């Protein structure tokens, strides 16, 4: 009978990474105490006698904790120590040959870097796949491309209904484990069974603590994913409730005046800061990487708008810190389809941190989704837009694991389950520069309101270990869009507005005078 393995925390050994003075077996023992659920002995330079000795002693330790032992590559060692399994690389012994040589029930795992590797692994009947490298790593000289967090979901999808288990490997550590687990879930809801780690545990002076942090994160996340999948079946949003909740967010913003950190483009800095102030929040425009950590502690939300990319390092760091603090992160990939540099920067940012909301016009979101249906012209969209915007936002939200806001004369918002259609706004918004950027600011401000509400409701968050962001970001996105578009309608009707020049200050006025009542009474909202 094959043994059922818990893959939650898969330690791959790395003797060469031990801190000075740390004994290998002591480190393994502490890692097991910290919650490692599988150990793979990986020795790339040891001779056979040494490998055998290490494998035997590691097995003794593993047995004490009832944790299975896997041997990397060497079938002879696996046979000699009666290991629970072997792990094979793409250039190691073929799985079919290994199966013949090993006793029935031996676990076989294979390293996979792309969908073809995964398909082969399925047809060869392996027990699990190790997907990597997901982040960069200094532990191994990589011969295959780095997959990136966002690339893993497509491989997991191949495993749907196969029963095969999957772990990800490569650069995973306590600080990015939740981001890795959250961001790798496939569009079908297929998540990782665990994470495989070398340096974060082996290189630590306190491997017990390093392992415990990782294990707790994986356990909390797996439970949360189950709840998320369950909730997606039962979810129902009533229009009245959405509007009541959104109104509360505006009150929260006015009451707490959250700091909205904006890394934005130099065309719109002043008007975005003024829009933030008009809603009752407090803007700070800061781009230097050196100040990102300090800002993450006080901020209510972060907006990353890359209309003019001058501070990629700052954007990367600010987002990572916002994720660590579980604060809202709104990403506005302005003109992402316009140049290769923007495309690769967006991919790098989105692989590094988890956006809470991505907002863009049809051209931008088409570029992000690799869709040919809509073309972009610089920072603007050309053509008539998506034939089925509701399905588009829903599937992109599932892919990016966040809220998607598709702007235009109608705005479409989705969290991957529900789709919300908003029909407020005025054509003059399209005739002033930076209305899309101001919308990003308004969304970030309402997301800060949603974050504050979550903190208010649950001051000491029990869910915080598995929560990627605190607060209902769908409501934040709806609130931000309604605020700007309703203000634009009221502004455009004013007798003192004679064109786009007078429209703009009137728009700021109407954001300033926005009330929960106006939001609920004027909203043109449909929940699909
Ligand atoms: N013709 C229009 N009618 C109503 N609202 C509009 C119109 N054009 C743009 N908007 C509003 O302006 C905001 C910015 O959207 P958009 O113009 O698509 O962004 P961008 O400036 O990034 O291209 C959105 O909230 C949208 O609802
Ligand atoms: C063995 C292996 N396979 C792909 S990346 C990697 C090394 C992962 O090491 P670390 O967890 O230290 O990045």
What compounds are bound to the protein? adenosine-5'-diphosphate, 4-methyl-5-hydroxyethylthiazole phosphate
Total DSSP E strands: 19
Query: Order of strands across the widest beta sheet?
Result: 10-9-11-12-13-16-17-18-19
Could you tell me how far the N terminus lies from the C terminus, measured between alpha carbons in angstroms? Answer: 48 Å
CATH superfamily of the largest domain, by name, is Ribokinase
Question: How would you characterize the largest beta sheet?
Answer: 9 strands, mixed
> What's the CATH C level of the largest domain?
Alpha Beta
What would the CATH topology of the largest domain be? UDP-N-acetylmuramoyl-L-alanine:D-glutamate ligase
Q: Which descriptor suits the 3D outline?
A: elongated
Number of domains: 2
Average residue pLDDT: 94
- CATH 2nd-level architecture of the largest domain: 3-Layer(aba) Sandwich
What does the radius of gyration come to? 25 Å
Tell me the fraction of residues in β-strands, as a range: 15-25%
Portion of residues in helices? 40-55%
Structural class by helix and strand composition: alpha/beta
Protein name: TMP-TENI-domain-containing protein
Family: In the N-terminal section; belongs to the thiamine-phosphate synthase family.
Function: Condenses 4-methyl-5-(beta-hydroxyethyl)thiazole monophosphate (THZ-P) and 2-methyl-4-amino-5-hydroxymethyl pyrimidine pyrophosphate (HMP-PP) to form thiamine monophosphate (TMP).
Pfam families: HK, TMP-TENI
């Amino acid at each position: 009978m094959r043994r059922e393995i818990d893959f939650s925390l898969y330690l791959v050994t790395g003797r060469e990474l031990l801190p000075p003075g740390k004994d290998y077996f002591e480190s393994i023992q502490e890692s097991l105490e910290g919650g490692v659920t599988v150990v793979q002995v990986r020795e790339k330079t040891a001779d056979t006698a040494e490998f055998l000795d290490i494998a035997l002693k590691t097995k003794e330790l593993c047995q004490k904790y009832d944790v299975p032992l896997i041997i990397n590559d060497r079938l002879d060692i696996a046979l000699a120590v009666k290991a629970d399994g072997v792990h094979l690389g793409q250039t190691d012994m073929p799985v079919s040959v290994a199966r013949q040589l090993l006793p029935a029930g031996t676990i076989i795992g294979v390293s996979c870097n792309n969908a073809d590797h995964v398909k082969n692994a399925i047809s060869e009947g392996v027990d699990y796949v190790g997907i990597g490298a997901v982040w960069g790593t200094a532990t191994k000289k990589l011969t295959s491309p780095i997959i990136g967090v966002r690339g893993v979901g497509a491989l997991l999808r191949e495993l749907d209904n196969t029963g095969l288990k999957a772990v990800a490997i490569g650069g995973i550590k306590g600080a990015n484990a939740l981001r890795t687990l959250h961001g790798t879930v496939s569009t079908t809801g297929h998540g990782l069974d665990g994470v495989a780690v070398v340096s974060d545990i082996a290189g630590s002076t306190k491997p017990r603590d390093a392992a415990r942090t990782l294990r707790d994160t994986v356990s909390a996340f797996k439970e949360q994913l189950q709840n998320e999948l369950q909730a997606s079946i039962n979810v129902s949003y009533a229009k009245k409730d959405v509007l009541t909740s959104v109104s509360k967010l505006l009150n929260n913003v006015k009451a707490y005046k959250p700091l909205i950190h904006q890394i934005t483009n130099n065309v719109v800095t002043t008007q975005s800061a003024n829009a933030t102030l008009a809603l009752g929040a407090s803007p700070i425009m800061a781009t230097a990487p050196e100040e990102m950590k300090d800002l993450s502690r006080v901020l209510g939300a972060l907006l990353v708008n890359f209309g003019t990319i001058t501070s990629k390092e700052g954007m990367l760091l600010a987002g990572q810190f916002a994720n660590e603090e579980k604060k809202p992160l709104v990403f506005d990939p302005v003109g992402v389809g316009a140049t290769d540099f923007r495309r690769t920067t967006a991919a790098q940012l989105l692989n590094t941190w988890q956006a809470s909301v991505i907002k863009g016009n049809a051209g931008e979101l088409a570029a992000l989704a690799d869709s040919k249906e809509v073309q972009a012209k610089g920072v603007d969209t050309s053509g008539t837009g998506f034939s089925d915007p509701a399905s588009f936002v829903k599937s992109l939200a599932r892919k990016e694991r966040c809220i998607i806001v598709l702007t235009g004369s109608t705005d479409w918002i989705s969290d991957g389950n529900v789709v919300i259609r908003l029909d407020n706004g005025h054509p003059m918004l399209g005739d002033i520069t930076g209305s899309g950027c101001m919308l990003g600011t308004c969304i970030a401000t309402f997301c800060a309101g949603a974050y504050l509400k979550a903190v208010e409701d649950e001051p000491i968050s029990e869910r915080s270990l598995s929560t990627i962001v605190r607060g209902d970001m769908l409501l934040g996105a709806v609130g931000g869009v309604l605020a700007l578009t309703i203000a634009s309608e009221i502004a455009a009707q004013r007798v003192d507005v004679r064109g786009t020049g007078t429209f703009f200050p009137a728009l700021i006025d109407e954001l300033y005078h926005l009330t929960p009542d106006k939001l609920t009474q004027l909203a043109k909202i449909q929940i699909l």
